[in-house]
C-alpha cells in the first residue's frame, strides 16, 4: 500500500509538468530496496528533446540523463535512478522540486525554421486578432512571443497553415478558465513540418479534431473545429510555430502569412484570407 502511494505521487508530480507529451507512469517505474528507477516514454509522433536543469543540489544524488532526444514513441529504460531515502512517504516525490524541465518538440540538432515559408491563415472568415506577438496577457515568454490569438468563434473550421504530419492531438477537454492552472485543459493539434519545426493549434472544441495522429495533411486542409478550452477568457485560436533548441527547449519563431507578407498583424484589427 505504501509503495502504491509513492508511485502515485511520482506520477502525479510529473504529469503536471508535461502531461500529454511525456509519461512516467506506473508501468515505467521499478523499485529496488534502495532505488527507484524511472523510464520515460515519448508520446508524440515527432522526436522530442528533454533536458533537466538542476535547481536543488540534492538532485546530484540522482543518476539521470541530462539531455536526451527520444524518437517517436520511444521509451528510454533506466532514465533516472533516485535513492529511495529521498522519497517522503507522505509527500511522495516532486521531481519539479529538484529540476526545471526543458522540453522541445523535435530534435534541436536538425530543427531549423524555413523563414521564407509563407503560412496560410488557419481560418477563412474575417476575424479579429485579439492578442498579437509579444502580447502582455500571455505571449510573454520565449515559447509564445511569436504566437497569434485569432478571435475565431466556437464552431469555426480551422485549416492547416502549412503541410506536415499530425504528431499529437488532445480533444477530450470541455473545460476552460481564466488562470494558468487551466493551461493543461486546452485541446490542440500539433503538426510537424519538414524542417523539423511544429505548429500548434490551441483551444479547439471538445472532440474538435478532424484529423488523426499520424495523418499527413496538406496546406489548407480542414483539421479542426475552433472552441474555447484551456487557459482563455474568450473563444479564439492560439497559433504558434515552435523550434526545438538545446538551451531553451521550444522557442516560438516569427512567421509570415499569405496576403500579409512583410506586414505585422496588429492587435484589434480584423484579418481574412487573401491572396497577395
Ligand atoms: Zn495565445
From TrEMBL:
<feature type="signal peptide">
    <location>
        <begin position="1"/>
        <end position="19"/>
    </location>
</feature>
<dbReference type="InterPro" id="IPR050570">
    <property type="entry name" value="Cell_wall_metabolism_enzyme"/>
</dbReference>
<dbReference type="InterPro" id="IPR016047">
    <property type="entry name" value="M23ase_b-sheet_dom"/>
</dbReference>
<dbReference type="InterPro" id="IPR011055">
    <property type="entry name" value="Dup_hybrid_motif"/>
</dbReference>
<dbReference type="Pfam" id="PF01551">
    <property type="entry name" value="Peptidase_M23"/>
</dbReference>
<dbReference type="GO" id="GO:0004222">
    <property type="term" value="F:metalloendopeptidase activity"/>
</dbReference>
<protein>
    <submittedName>
        <fullName>Peptidase M23-like protein</fullName>
    </submittedName>
</protein>
<feature type="domain" description="M23ase beta-sheet core">
    <location>
        <begin position="146"/>
        <end position="245"/>
    </location>
</feature>
<keyword id="KW-0732">Signal</keyword>
Amino acid at each position: 500500500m505504501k509503495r502504491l502511494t509513492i508511485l502515485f505521487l511520482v506520477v502525479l508530480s510529473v504529469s503536471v509538468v508535461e502531461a500529454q507529451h511525456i509519461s512516467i507512469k506506473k508501468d515505467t517505474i521499478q523499485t529496488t530496496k534502495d532505488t527507484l528507477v524511472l523510464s520515460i516514454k515519448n508520446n508524440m509522433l515527432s522526436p522530442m528533446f528533454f533536458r533537466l536543469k538542476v535547481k536543488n543540489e540534492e538532485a546530484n544524488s540522482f543518476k539521470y540523463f541530462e539531455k536526451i532526444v527520444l524518437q517517436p514513441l520511444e521509451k528510454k529504460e533506466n532514465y533516472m535512478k533516485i535513492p529511495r531515502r529521498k522519497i517522503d512517504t507522505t509527500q511522495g516525490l516532486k521531481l519539479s522540486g529538484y529540476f526545471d524541465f526543458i522540453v522541445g518538440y523535435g530534435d534541436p540538432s536538425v530543427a531549423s525554421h524555413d523563414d521564407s515559408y509563407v503560412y496560410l491563415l488557419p481560418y477563412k472568415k474575417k476575424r479579429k486578432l485579439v492578442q498579437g506577438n509579444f502580447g502582455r496577457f500571455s505571449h510573454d515568454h520565449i515559447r509564445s512571443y511569436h504566437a497569434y490569438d485569432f478571435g475565431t468563434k466556437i464552431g469555426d473550421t480551422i485549416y492547416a497553415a502549412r503541410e506536415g504530419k499530425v504528431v499529437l492531438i488532445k480533444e477530450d477537454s470541455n473545460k476552460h478558465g481564466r488562470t494558468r492552472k487551466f493551461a493543461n485543459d486546452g485541446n490542440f493539434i500539433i503538426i510537424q513540418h519538414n524542417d523539423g519545426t511544429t505548429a500548434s493549434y490551441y483551444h479547439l472544441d471538445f472532440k474538435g479534431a478532424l484529423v488523426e495522429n499520424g495523418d499527413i495533411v496538406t496546406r489548407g486542409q480542414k483539421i479542426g473545429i475552433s472552441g474555447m478550452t484551456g487557459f482563455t477568457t474568450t473563444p479564439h485560436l492560439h497559433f504558434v510555430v515552435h523550434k526545438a533548441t538545446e538551451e531553451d527547449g521550444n522557442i516560438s519563431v516569427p512567421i509570415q502569412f499569405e496576403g500579409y507578407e512583410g506586414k505585422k498583424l496588429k492587435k484589434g484589427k480584423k484579418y481574412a484570407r487573401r491572396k497577395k
